[in-house]
Amino acid sequence: MTRLLPVLSLALATLPFAAPAQQSVLPAPPPPPGLENAELLPGWQRKDGSRMAGLEISLAPGWKTYWRAPGDAGIPPQITFAGSQNVADVKLHWPAPEIFLSAGMRTIGYHDGVLLPVSITPADPTKPVTLKAEATIGICDQICVPVTLNLEAELSGKGALDPRIEQALAAEPKPVDAVTRCQTEAVRDGVKVTARIDLPPAIGPEETLFELASRPVWVSEATSHREGDALVASADFVPPEAKPFDLDLRDVRITVLSDRGPVQIEGCTE
Asked: Cα(130)–Cα(153) distance, rounded to whole angstroms?
């Protein structure tokens, strides 16, 4: 039976040294159970002046953490970059997740850790970027531990391509412009969305994941079936107040995992 420990806060401070980029490292005391390391990878500057960095979380073997939409019983990650300097815009990239089944509950996430690429648009590309990240995440094995990470790194110079970040970017679901017709139906505690997606069938099973792009809302496990080249899937969206609400279909994000590769659809087209 999974049990929840009290929240543990772990501050990851930057140690000053004469390297071009200062990276976050774990200080004493030791990290909580399951967390082996967390750091900001400095990455590189791209030709247009933007930067690519990475937020890497390393877990002990067998431990897992959660995707941005964590499923039935997962802990939703909360990651912000407030307090960063010389940053006009920042975007997290999420590699395709896995589906976990435990004690009859379905959760969505990553085993042994995850590397989240971070795209940064500096306010002034000629100056260094101070990137500050605060992440509240859940890590789980036989127990679940909520952990707060405070990370800071100075990103300067051209840097160098990091194959770890490139690999994580390549694992991000690819955007597709599939025609997606959606219908809504009010249910007792929210809204049911049924999507008909024009998407060629995969050879093996397909997993359909629904979420809202603009804000976290609990979403039920999707049910889906095939009608030729159309994938028909539906799920319930349940807001915190647990009642029907006005759902903007343009805000619906659908991720489909299959052996053809993960794909992502932004908004219903009809």
From this structure: 6
* Residue 52 to residue 106: CA distance in whole angstroms: 32
Tokens of 26: 């774990």
Domains, the chain, in order of start with CATH, read 3-170 (2.60.40), 174-266 (2.60.40)
Query: What is the 3-state secondary structure of 120-173?
Result: EEECCCCCCEEEEEEEEEEEECCEEEEEEEEEEEEECCCECCCHHHHHHHHCCC
What's the pLDDT tens digit per position in 107-154?
999 999 999 999 999 999 999 999 999 999 999 998 889 999 999 999
pTM of this structure: 0.86
Residue count of the chain, please give it: 270
Query: Measuring CA to CA, how many Å separate 256 from each of 80, 95, 210, 270?
Result: 26, 13, 9, 19
Cα–Cα distance list, 203 to 206, 257, 259 (Å): 9, 12, 7
Asked if residues 210 and 171 have their Cβ atoms less than 8 Å apart, the reply is no
CA distances from 185 to 191, 195, 228, 241 (A): 6, 12, 24, 17
Instruction: State the pLDDT at residue 127.
Output: 97
Predicted local confidence at residue 140, as pLDDT: 93
* Residues 76, 124: Cα–Cα separation, whole Å: 33
Burial 93-114 (b: 16+ CB within 10 A, else e): bbbbbeebeeeeebbbbbeebb
In order of 102, 154, 193, 243, the CA distances from 232 in angstroms are 26, 46, 11, 24
Answer whether 18's CB lies under 8 Å from 36's CB: no
**What is the C-alpha to C-alpha distance for residues 197 and 180, in angstroms, rounded to an integer?**
4
Which residues of the chain are under the pLDDT cut of 50? 1-21
* Among candidate residues 53, 52, 47, the one with its CA nearest the CA of residue 23: 53
Report d(CA 21, CA 86) in Å as an integer: 15
